[in-house]
Amino acid sequence: MVQVRDSRSAPPREVVALTGVTKVYPGRVGVRALDGVSVGFGRGSFTAVMGPSGSGKSTLLHCAAGLDRPTEGRVVLVGQDIGALREPKLTAVRRRHVGFVFQSFNLVDALSVWDNVVLPQQFAGVRPDRDWAREVLARVGLSGREKARPGELSGGQQQRVALARALAGRPEVIFGDEPTGALDLSTGREVLALLRRFVDEFEATVVMVTHDPAAAAWADRVVFLADGRLAGDLFAPSAEQISAHMMELTR
Predict the structure, then answer these.
(1) In the list 99, 149, 157, 202, which could disulfide-bond 153, CB 3.0-4.6 Å?
(2) Which residue, among 243, 248, 207, has the nearest Cα to 231 in the 3D structure?
(3) Which domains does the chain have, with CATH numbers?
(4) What span, in angstroms and rounded, lies between the C-alpha atoms of 169 and 16?
(5) pTM here?
(6) What pLDDT, in 10s, does the model give residues 172-217?
(7) Per-residue pLDDT averaged across 125-146, rounded?
């Protein structure tokens, strides 16, 4: 049986660490999306984040990536306490160290595949590494499609462009929010295999929110949330073991 352990036991060489993170969204009745979460993600690791709807999965991802600021607690990203950073500096840290892959692709329709891939580096004021960008496009199976526009590509190809864009800046951390949610089963597997490959070959850290046990089974570790709190984790689990734990959380 796969061991369920307390996610607060931090893995070595953490690239991302959340300590006592609480996020309350304002309103007449404040929504406590996260409630005292402490969890870390090590270098060269692939972690899936799962939980019932409304458990705080995307909020955790956004706080870890510096896209949202916690109400309480501390977030350290690539050695920097990002809660202490003002927005221009925080943006610079994200552009230099972080890649993002979202379900909706978030490509610029008016730009070519090539321009979409190098766009984050241009925004960061960094000269794109053209050789590496070409290699990344080759690795995601898009050599020869550099001049195509997103509208000329299939959904799976568009997600490959989004993945190439995330990897082109050689990020230390890749955050994925349901990156295979809009893809068919075969294409989703290809994207997950690419994420797995970059973890194994380049010691990238991948943190991926998903609702799919089969997708989560590609990860080294699955962290579970329920009602904004940690609900244990599984290490090297099968899709069946992940499904069984999810069923326990929803009882």
Answers:
(1) 157
(2) 248
(3) 4-249 (3.40.50.300)
(4) 18
(5) 0.88
(6) 999 999 988 888 888 888 889 989 988 998 899 999 999 999 999 9
(7) 88
Task: Using only the alpha carbons of the chain, give its radius of gyration.
Answer: 18
Number of Cβ within 10 Å of residue 94's Cβ equals 23
Taking every pair of C-alpha atoms in the chain, what is the biggest distance, in angstroms? 54
Among 24-28, 103-107, 112-116, 175-179, whose mean pLDDT is lowest?
24-28
Q: Contact at 8 Å (CB) between 109 and 151?
A: yes
3-state secondary structure the chain: CCCEECCCCCCCCEEEEEEEEEEEECCCCCEEEEEEEEEEEECCCEEEEECCCCCCHHHHHHHHHCCCCCCEEEEEECCEEHHHCCHHHHHHHHHHHEEEEECCCCCCCCCCHHHHHHHHHHHCCCCCCHHHHHHHHHHCCCCCCCCCCHHHCCHHHHHHHHHHHHHHCCCCEEEEECCCCCCCHHHHHHHHHHHHHHHHHHCCEEEEECCCHHHHCCCCEEEEEECCEEEEEEECCCHHHHHHHHHHHCC
